[in-house]
Amino acid sequence: MDVNWPPELRVYLDSVESALAKARVEHTVRAGVIRDLETQISEMRAEGIPDDEILSRLDPPEAYVDPQSLLDVGPDRKPPAIPVQAPPVPFPRISDVLYVVVAIVAAVAVLTEELSHICAETFGDPIPTWLHFASLVSVPFILLITIAKMRRGISRFSLPPLTFLNGYLVAVGFWYTLMFLPLMPFAFLSTFLMGLGLLPLAPLLTFVAALLQNFQLYRCGQAVYKRPGHWRFWFAGLALAVLLLGGAQFRQFVTDHYARLAVGGDPETRASGLKMLKRLHLEGAVLEYCYSENHQRLWGELPFTRQHLPYLAPSGYQTLYYRMTGTDYRDVQKTEYRRGNRQRVRNAEDAEVGGDAVASSSRLLSLKSAAMDISFAGSPSGLDAGPSLAYAELTLEFLNRDSSAKEARCQIIMPPGGVVSRLTLWINGEEREAAFGRRGAVREAYSQVAVVQSRDPALLTTAGPDRVLLQCFPVNPDVPMRVKVGFTLPLIPDDGRMALLMPYIAERNFAFEPGQRVALWAESEAPLQTDVEELLNEVVPSRSNGAGDLGYIYAVRGDMPPENLASVRIFAPSPTPETTIYRAELSGVTAYSSLSEARPLERRLVALVIDTSAQCAELFSPDDFDWITVLEELPDNVRIALFAGGISCPPMNREEAKRRWPEILRGVNFAGADDQADSLAGAWDLCASEQNSVVLWLHGKLPVEISDMTGLNQRMLRRPSSDGYSSPRLLSMQLLPGPNRIEEKLTGLLRLPLFYGQPLERRLSRVLSMSLHPTMNDRELAFSLQRPTSGADAETLSGSPHIARLAFAAEIATKHREQQVSLPEEDIETAIKLRLVTPITGAVVLENERQYAEHDLDPSVEVEKVPTIPEPEEIALFAVALALLLLLFLLDRRRALHSGGDAA
User: Could you give the strand order of the β-sheet that contains 435-438, starting from the edge strand earlier in sequence?
Assistant: First the structure.
């Protein structure tokens, strides 16, 4: 109050305060009213209004206690808004204790679930989002705030927000009571018998407490408003909770419904479900459930609705997400957008340990370092590729930054015809060789030691044609694990040269470090070249021959990103003369290597199947891909049919295809994922009626299995194509590096080599011009257990023992491709002796001799049977010796010059 105010104004303010005090209005409320009046008077005095007129404008003091006294003043006069306070609600002190107990139980329930995820792992996740978490955390605070305010008395100002919060609390309590309704009988029983079960009862206790508080707030509303006027605030809080929680649950309900339609039923139903998921933009929801083993379903968990919403496993959502987007769910960051996903992903990873798939990835498991060492088997003269093969060793070192042990898993794809011939693991700083044995025996040993005993094993088995699965467990926190895989690889004829394609990691559950590189080093006594800019071509002196001439070592070396390893090609000269036959013997197996002219297969019908998923949109873009140029190379006597997504064209000749195909392919929609199994089956059926026909499948990667391959597998089993002339032959050309589930399942297909990053039109034109010969070249490299009859008079030279490995691996692959029920026992024993990873054998590294003996595995091996990369010590010593000789020569010459100068 301003000291310059007249006494009349001060007396008026004192009268107002006395009237409020007699009415027992709370002190803080009285102070607020006086402050408001002082502010109002100050504003009117600042406007120059006289003090007597200000007093006439103010309401009488009794109006602030009983607004009804102003009703007779006049029609234009409105009573002031008086903050009236209701007296404290008289309820027993025991109620305070009960409310506090309920608040504590609710807080403990939320904290227990947040730390242990016990409900999420057994029944369903009650806290799937941060919104649900915030709603549950607010429950004990709302209970306690309402208790405290009612004990002190509720005013007009505090009643609306309290009733709003109570409506919100009632809705949240009812929501979670309905969710936990199936568990209520067990919770009551365990509470009375064993003292347990309070946590599942927390929603019901909260709901009952919220209703009791609502009744008390109703009484306060009658005391303050003289009528129950708080309901509009209560319903507003109720509506907010239903909107927030119900909206998130309705999204779940809709996603579950259309996901069920998209994965089950007839093709029309699946198409409609997938269409609705895309139209409603539910890709994010489907992605969330790719990682949730037991995600929340409010209505789906109730007994009377369970049959209408069957449970869909995460694998179903993973397939569905790929069908919607054409993107692998593991390529998307998944732990940031959804609360609690990291725990669910970790549990999923633990369940996958020891399985036969790469499965989900871990962001905290990474590849620390990688190196690829390659040695070419040259001819005795050292001038050409000789037997046309190479031995490569890929060394990987894993690092785990998580708090628990992880399993490192990856799928490695090799060039067609390649085979794994070595596996080692570093245990306690010592490199241990693997034991080779039957596929079932090595997998059982790995599962027992890795999953049950958590020791240090590594496992290598085949995962389909020309691909293997590597598994290492446990990768302990902050303790690197190092493993080495050895590959015996054939070279591939290409434009008069022999090309080596790199094995590469197609699928993995670990991350690449930022700026990750693979250290690549290839050496040969024959000249090597590469067209990769990041790699260096190097020539260094090697050794002197018998005549005293210097030889040379040719090297290709450098650092490559792991993603680009699939596109690396290293070239060596073709064998001279090309009719030379190389012979080798290993473990009683005699084999031959030869390069000869390829005889074109006279095809009459070609069915071309094109992958129309989103990943292939750029490859077959109408603006970039020239189909007319490709079709121009088709022989005159060959008809060609087209299968692209839902489009199929009957067989037609070259000229008709050139005229009609470009327009047809412009109408193809490259989006989502293509169900290529149906197209392959249709193409196979078309070709089945004609001899010398072939299905050529052009596709990208396929990281999930989206189709049932039973029908196509049955076709290829009943009518195998083994001689190249039977109908039909299925050839696969993968245009993008990565996994492919259909290739893994179809053992009857033949993979064609493809140089990634090279113009697709040129490669496809070439294979069509060769009438679809598998080598895509006019030369054919063969590794066989029988000496070629066409080269009876050819020169035979002694070659690398790797010839025996490649020849026997090709023999096993042919038998397996022909779908034989079982292979002879001698084939299994021979594969073990040769130390090969085949469809019938695998390799495993265990920690000690006792573990090998328990699983009937023999880790002993003769040194000459272990393939290795030649050590560089001899070359290094020779280079040092050469440098010393050159230095001595220069010193002697300098000394001679000085001595000559002194004599002069």
Answer: 435-438, 841-845, 458-462, 467-475, 406-413, 504-508
Tokens representing 673 are 């994922």
Q: pTM, whole model, 2 decimals?
A: 0.75
* CA proximity to 377, closest of 572, 556, 669: 572
Query: How many CB atoms neighbour CB 887 within 10 A?
Result: 10
349-386 per-position pLDDT tens digit: 555 676 778 877 777 899 999 999 999 988 887 788 88
DSSP assignments along 420-453, one per residue:
EEEEEEEETTEEEEPEEEEHHHHHHHHIIIIIIS
Q: Phi first, then psi: what are they for 412, rounded to 5°?
A: -115, 125
Q: How confident is the model at residue 77 (pLDDT cuts 50, 70, 90)?
A: very low
Calculate the average pLDDT of the chain.
79
β-pairing verdict for 518-524 and 365-376: parallel
Are 416 and 503 spatial neighbours (Cβ–Cβ below 8 Å)? Answer: no
**Statement: residue 299 has pLDDT above 60:** no
* Assigned token pair, 783: 């590794």
Q: Give the strand pairing for 693-699 and 729-734.
A: parallel
The number of beta carbons lying within 10 Å of the beta carbon of residue 534 is 13
Closest by CA to 357, choosing from 507, 510, 563, 562, is 507
111 and 140 in contact (C-beta within 8 Å)?
no
The tally of CA atoms less than 13 A away on the side-chain side of residue 594 is 21
Given the DSSP bridges, would you call strands 605-610 and 693-699 parallel, antiparallel or unpaired? parallel
Inter-CA distances, 763 with 449, 643, 728, 739, 753, Å? 46, 20, 22, 21, 10
Q: Are 756 and 736 in contact (CB under 8 A)?
A: yes
Q: 504 is written with which tokens?
A: 């590469």
- Residue 515 burial (CB count, 10 A): 7
Decide: residue 633, CB within 10 A, 0-12 exposed, 13-18 middle, 19+ buried. middle
**Helix orientation angle between 198-225 and 93-116, rounded to the nearest 10 degrees:** 140
Alpha carbon of 227 to those of 71, 222, 231, 712, 901: distances in Å? 19, 5, 10, 76, 127
Report which residue type is found at 738: G
The DSSP bridge partners found for residue 522 are 374, 556
SS (H, E, C) 760-817: HHHHHHHHHHCCCCCCCCCEEEEEECCCCHHHCCCCEEECCCHHHHHHHHHHHHHHHH
User: Between the CA of residue 800 and those of 583, 783, 867, what are the distances in Å?
Assistant: 8, 12, 10
Write out pLDDT tens, residues 822-856: 778 888 999 999 999 999 999 999 988 888 888 88
- The residue type of 206 is T
**HSE of 84 in the Cβ direction (CA atoms, 13 Å)?**
17
pLDDT band at 899 (very low <50, low <70, confident <90, very high): low
